[in-house]
């Protein structure tokens, strides 16, 4: 990756991570409660990370972990 690409990627990640996190209680029809909550960034676009978890906070934590990679 060129230096320009790295700089552009950093700016995009910084902008995404500074946006508000939006959560939804979705309760999908599966026996596990591991995916009851979903967390995304306010301007979510397909392909961006989506956090999942059994609680709202777990979904937020999962989203933040994915963004840190």
Count of extended strands:
3
Q: Summarize model confidence as the mean pLDDT.
A: 84
Class inferred from helices and paired strands: alpha+beta
The helix/strand order is HEEEH
Classify the helix fraction into a percent range: 40-55%
Descriptive report:
This protein has helices at 3-17, 56-68, and strands spanning 21-25, 37-41, 51-53. It has 69 residues and is of the alpha+beta class. The chain has one domain. It has a three-stranded antiparallel beta sheet. It is elongated. It starts with a helix and ends with a helix. The model has no long low-confidence stretch (mean pLDDT 84).
What key attributes describe this structure?
alpha+beta, 3-stranded antiparallel β-sheet, 3 strands, 69 residues, 41% helix, single chain
Q: Summarize this, please?
A:
The protein has 69 residues and is α+β, with helices and mostly antiparallel strands. It is 41% helix and 19% strand.
Element layout with pairings:
Blueprint: H1 3-17, E1 21-25, E2 37-41, E3 51-53, H2 56-68
Antiparallel strand pairs: 1-2, 2-3
